[in-house]
Amino acid sequence: MSKPQRDRESKMGFEMRVYGWIAIAISIAICLCPCLSLEETNGERCNLYEGTWVYDESYPLYDSSTCPHIRLEYDCLKYGRVDKEYLKYRWKPSTCDLPRFDGQSFLTKLKGKQIMFIGDSVSLNQWQSLICLLHSAVPKANIIQQGGDPITNYTFKDYGVSVIVYHSTYLVDIEGEKIGRVLKLDSIKSGNLWKQMDVLVFNTWLWWYRSGPRQPWDYIQIGDKIVKDMDRMEAFRTGLTTWANWVNKEVDTSKTKVLFQGISPMHYNGTQWNEPGVTNCAKETTPIDGTSSSQGLPPASYVLQSVLQKVTKPIEFLNITALSELRKDGHPSSHNGFHGMDCTHWCVAGVPDTWNELLYASISE
């Protein structure tokens, strides 16, 4: 591991200790939010996010080689991944079953509607998975592809369903000004388009801690105050709070269903799975043993969950963090079109299919 990586891991560890004290409060408070669940056999409610990964020969849900829509970042089999076991795991909640994804049912339930994923490349990752799931269900469907960055739209014309991804790294705005690129933590100008959708799935985190040449802004602005930099976790909290206030003020949740996806975990540090000498996910072929409840959460998760408590309108928390934390085997590693080490994104087919099964369960309720 390089020194910058070690420094980042050390910093993240410190932040975990700083934010860890609020975990108990969050776990209590989050119960006040709408909770995605199904009925157990005894009529009680089941938490779909508490469970384990089980081996299932009927998976994956589709053959990725037949999906014409996978970007080179996520197409692991095409770019040389030999092991296939990572494709065979199904998410099993502890006290009920997660419904198997049914593409025709999904399109029928959303007939005439628009679903939009809004966020960074993790949102793109989930969107790609959904496109493949739907394509495999209706392979002869008339699909119209429109747009490009920041908006790409696949419309399943026979159903009138638009599946859209809107690339927004921070959700809040970045604007070019005389002094340079300004990250405006209190501004969401794209919201006028977002709130016209029928289903919104938000996500952000991946870029909040980036610095140096890969950082896409030069200054941060809150109100009239402009600074060169600030504590990134506090900036994350401020930006999310702007989003929460936007939902409270602007979104009619009787017409638009709003979900926020939990933090997508990375696997660059073997201490996560009790192998401290391992520095990435390259040789991982099986999940981490254990249940989702056994996994510690990244600091950003506590910040996200605390801000979600500020949303007064009904939204759903697509809480994929702990269950994805178990999947050290689910990343492309070097099996992508760039041949770089990627333990951040996820293979398609793979873990994002489960995220979409959870989304399907939410829409089906």
Automatic annotation (TrEMBL):
InterPro entries: TBL, TBL_C, TBL_N
Subcellular location: Membrane
Membrane topology of the entry: Single-pass membrane protein
GO cellular component: Golgi apparatus; membrane
GO function term, MF aspect, one: O-acetyltransferase activity
Domain Trichome birefringence-like N-terminal: 44-97
Entry annotated with the keyword Transmembrane: yes
Keywords: Membrane, Signal-anchor, Transmembrane, Transmembrane helix
Trichome birefringence-like C-terminal domain residues: 98-361
Family as reported in the entry's similarity comment: Belongs to the PC-esterase family. TBL subfamily.
Designated name of the protein: Pmr5/Cas1p GDSL/SGNH-like acyl-esterase family protein
